[in-house]
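Appendix B, Record 12. Input sequence as logged:
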Amino acid sequence: MGEEEKSGYEKQLNTGEVLFKDGDPGDEMYLIKSGKVRISKPAGEIEKTLAVLKEGDFFGEMSVIDGSPRSATAMAVEPTELVIFDREVFMNQVRENPLIEYVLHTLIRRLRETDEQIKYLLIKDEEKRLLAMLLTKAREGTQTDKGILVNFSFAYDSFAAVVGTTEKKTREIVENLLKTKLITIESDKLYVSNQRNLEEYLSYITLREKFSV
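Logged structural output:
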């Protein structure tokens, strides 16, 4: 199928059919011609609905623009007809105007940062939210002889705002992590001493919460 044929072709989904999942690669965006699509994201053991899109709505544009994996799952909630736009054809049009390309990439970066914060805020327990964020940042961090350097400048107030809790509570949780040597902080640099140990600690408090009487 050539570019001219691929861009704008149609696809039908049955009720309950998954178009893509959170984390899948993505090179197409979609316009809903008829029907409805549920956009959702896993939050612990449940699937949290972020939006239900209907005729005239479009989605999937973030992966098309920045090449990143899908940030949510899309599933038809009733028989649905989609118009599909290929990434290469779409981006060729965008690249003709460098300002539009820059604005779109900036908007997508901000949306992805918001998506990431929403993912943490869906976790009810404050300590687990903070640990989940640290583990995500550790996977993107830099290995050093002091541990994994996370990719943000550490400050209690800004850290508390991202996690969605008070500065006092953040200090309490962070000080406990420092005492147990799971993390170290030097000036505005935060190091995860051992990623595996931090993962095990998150598992421990999750089990403790689940089986506590």
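The two ends are 60 Å apart (CA to CA).
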